[in-house]
Design a protein that fits this description.
CATH superfamily of the largest domain: Vaccinia Virus protein VP39
CATH class of the largest domain: Alpha Beta
CATH topology of the largest domain: Rossmann fold
CATH architecture of the largest domain: 3-Layer(aba) Sandwich
Structural class: alpha/beta
Order of helices and strands: HHHHHEEHEHEHEEHEHEE
Helix content: 25-40%
Largest sheet: 7 strands, mixed
Distance between the termini: 74 Å
Number of helices: 10
Shape: elongated
Radius of gyration: 21 Å
Number of strands: 9
Length: 283
């Protein structure tokens, strides 16, 4: 057996090789994992590939690699996920924020009235990603975020406190239940929209995320239908509803919006050109 020390460079090479089966981001994931394990920035590791790796760190890295290869999301292992330039805490109590969800934030910044203190409702907030991003960009806004899971809201509250965002309140309950008769200029949601028998639920990452945040029934449209059905009760005149959905669900969601009397229906596309969110206006 060789007595050659395990270095940062060799550790990264080994980790990237093992992670390659999960996709094209193997090297980046290896760098992030090692950075968290040794508690040093990625740049410092890349600048010192010959630095010996402590045996304890090497052992921990191997344990985390095994967990990642079993399908645990990288964000859960790292305990962090960047969203809209916010460094959010995440763990198995919440869905890992995705880049396509930033479409909801972009839309919010486009349509929120610039000349008054708008009210925003985020349904099914999870980690608080969308609510906190909007609150950070519009400190004059009053953002209410709801979730049926007290455990998820505990994560969201920690994120709000750590980011120093005081213009967000978090309420436990099913969709609109916690907000009573309140009305909003904008309602946003990234609800569960995956069909309950979709094979993707057993894929990398998804299998470890909270099922209640991924699917709400056989078609994947059940939560979207509930949200659309009561939107006008809680929208101010000319207020907007915007929801994320699957890339193949745009027509179905537009039909749900139209059936509930929403107008000016718009499809929002991600960087790949896929329709990943739909917005509609009240009046």
């Amino acid at each position: 057996m060789s007595n050659k020390p395990f270095t940062v460079g060799s550790a990264l090479d080994d980790a990237a090789s093992k992670l390659r089966s999960l996709g094209a981001d193997a090297r980046r994931e290896a760098e992030i994992l090692l950075s968290v394990v040794v508690e040093r920035p990625r740049a410092a590791l890349l600048a010192n590939p010959g630095m010996p790796l402590d045996p304890g760190h090497a052992q921990k890295l191997q344990q985390w690699l095994e967990r990642r290869l079993r399908g645990e999301p990288l964000a859960y292992l790292a305990g962090r996920k960047e969203f809209w330039s916010l460094d959010l805490e995440v763990d198995p109590r919440v869905l890992v924020p995705r880049p396509e969800t930033e479409l909801l934030v972009e839309f919010a910044l486009e349509v929120l009235p610039p000349d008054k203190h708008p009210r925003v409702l985020d349904l099914g907030t999870g980690s608080g990603a969308v609510a906190l991003a909007i609150a950070g960009e519009r400190p004059d806004a009053r953002v209410v975020a709801t979730d049926v899971s007290p455990e998820a809201l505990a994560v969201a509250c920690r994120n709000a406190e750590r980011l120093g965002l005081a213009n967000v309140s978090f309420e436990v309950g099913h969709w609109y239940e916690p907000v009573g008769a309140m009305h909003f200029d904008l309602i946003v949601s990234n609800p569960p929209y995956v069909a309950e028998n979709d094979p993707a639920l057993g894929g990398d990452g998804l299998r470890a995320e909270p099922r209640v945040a991924l699917t709400s029934g056989p078609t994947g449209l059940e939560a979207l239908q509930l949200i659309a059905a009561r939107a006008r009760e809680h929208l101010r005149p000319h207020g907007w509803l915007a929801v994320e959905h699957g890339a193949t669900q745009a027509d179905a969601v537009a039909a749900l919006f139209s059936a509930q009397g929403l107008s000016t229906i718009r499809s929002l596309r991600d960087l790949a050109g896929l329709p990943r969110a739909t917005a509609g206006r009240h009046g």
